[in-house]
């Protein structure tokens, strides 16, 4: 009898233990799915624009609770594939034609007059000067045209167009090396510094240039060394994320040189082709600017040479833009000019004047606010856009 009671007690205890383990054991919420990896680049560390999503901490075991609904991982940004750079200026010709055609048409109609008297030549010179080509270039063009017209005698519209085309091309200089040096060398990325006064389109140009390079099959890291304005880094982060280019940035007010250094280090570590560094362009004092840009360049050069220093100029600012260009040319060794907003001005002649002043070629032109409205500068396509087609 005692044994029976004892066996019943053991059975009841076993039943309680079994029920406790299998029925009351709490369920753990599932970990959220991992975000898909970035297609290209993809960054780590505090300095990049793509913070990694942290996994939520696991909850401690406790009483039975309904699992929390698992939050959806944000969709990875879609990586765009911009069009290649080749032939962009030809594709964007309509933009140039819209802004520059009046200049071309005006000159062609003046030159086609039956009699080219003194006042007509003066008018031709004035039209050229109004296009910001500069007095020296305008005078040279008129002198040369006068001689050629005299030799030619009567002129057909094709001849007039041919003469003017040749003069404009001679002033723009077709034999300049306009290639932007973005090729990696000895396994190290090329470094491009983008300088210029804020508002000229500097940050936009940095973003657009990244797209040009990605469109041409290159890999890029961007450095947001314009730490003066937080929005500039934000703007660049957006440009970078669209084409999968990591953006190295720091807080507003951080040392621009340290951002540039980190960007170049990141570019080397990732083995990318090109690092593009956007800089701040406050013209507070020439010495301040010189100190800042000089330091950025020196610090980058502890790692690798700077291959290209692009000065961004707003084509609509005329003489003021030229003054800015002179200051920048004095503080840093500019290797190429980017002329932005050429779509919004009839003053395309500025190309000639700025090249003369700085002795540096225009390498890229901005022709609109669209992401792919930056084109390698092609003198022939430019002059043809100004003059319109021969049969027009
Ligand atoms: N129409 C036209 N607008 C342009 C062009 N390039 C830039 N812009 C516009 O110019 C404005 C200024 O561009 P940003 O890139 O912000 O200028 P920024 O020099 O970097 O100035 P901060 O950002 O203040 O440093 C923006 O609205 C651009 O869209 C261009 O080629 N054509």
TrEMBL record:
Keywords: Cell membrane, Cytoplasm, GTP-binding, Hydrolase, Membrane, Nucleotide-binding, Receptor, Transmembrane, Transmembrane helix. GO terms for cellular component: cytoplasm; plasma membrane. It holds the Pfam family SRP54. Residues 28-84 are annotated as: Disordered. This is Signal recognition particle receptor FtsY. It is a peripheral membrane protein. It catalyses: GTP + H2O = GDP + phosphate + H(+). It comes from the Bacteria.
